Amino acid sequence: MSGFVLHPRLAADTALLADWDLSRVLLMNDSRFAWLILVPRRAGVAELHDLGPLDRSVLVEEVARASAALKAVTGAVKINIGALGNVVAQLHFHVVARNPGDAAWPGPVWGYGGPVPYGAAARDGLLARLTARLA
Amino acid sequence: MSGFVLHPRLAADTALLADWDLSRVLLMNDSRFAWLILVPRRAGVAELHDLGPLDRSVLVEEVARASAALKAVTGAVKINIGALGNVVAQLHFHVVARNPGDAAWPGPVWGYGGPVPYGAAARDGLLARLTARLA
Q1: Which CATH class is domain B8-134?
Q2: Burial category of A134 from C-beta neighbours within 10 Å (exposed 0-12, middle 13-18, buried 19 and up)
Q3: Do A53 and B67 touch (CB under 8 A)?
Q4: pTM attached to this predicted model
Q5: Most CB contacts within 10 A, which of A62, A69, B11, B66?
């Protein structure tokens, strides 16, 4: 894991949920959408195909784990998964709970309006529910 | 693979590139972006976490293979990967070549304007280049 440093933009926009075997798991500070970000702790990786196959096999399980937990905790109708990297190139996977009628439905959340930060209690409550589900 | 039927919306919007071990690989008929769609040939699957772990390990390798080939053939600056399913619930992964200055840059392609269909020669040329790269 040597050399990994979380991109400052990702650090500024999120709160830490946990470090898993490969990924740092972050909660996006945007109360419009329950939204996790998984960042593989590898330096210099921008594309999924830049990771090694063993890392990819761990990553896909971690994304699936985040997806299942987020759906269970929020009751969302659909989970959206994305790895774009047009603005922040460091490889990171978004896992977002979506529902008909949410701010961006049925479009994508990326680039849609501005974030609405959580209050500390709401943020900590969601982090606690996710942590309990994932235990 | 019994019971798998490609969603008619995906069939209507794409041309067939190949069937890989797990996924049907399709070229989106939108000349604004070089854009592949991978659909695991499993019935009744909407979320990544609905697939079994063995299927997931194959899927992530197939997505990486599509990503590397698309980047090599197009010379794109960045590959975008997404699985949304807000409109078509059947699990499918988008793999999209992106460049600064393309129609939607740096935003996501999903829901951005209307598709600009290929002419037959341009579509077949891209399919041939991708097929050669993947051989």
Answers
A1: alpha beta
A2: middle
A3: no
A4: 0.97
A5: B66
> Is A8-101+111-134 assigned to CATH 1.20.1300.10?
no
CB contact under 8 A, A84 and B108: yes
Convert A8-55 into a string of H (helix), E (strand) and C (coil): HHHHHHEEEEEECCCEEEEEECCCCCCEEEEEECCCCCCCHHHCCHHH
Q: What is the pLDDT along chain A (135 residues), one digit of tens a residue?
A: 579 999 999 999 999 999 999 999 999 999 999 999 999 999 999 999 999 999 999 999 999 999 999 999 999 999 999 999 999 999 999 999 999 999 999 999 999 999 999 999 999 999 999 999 998
Å between A87 CA and nearest CA of chain B? 7
For chain A, the domains span 8-101+111-134
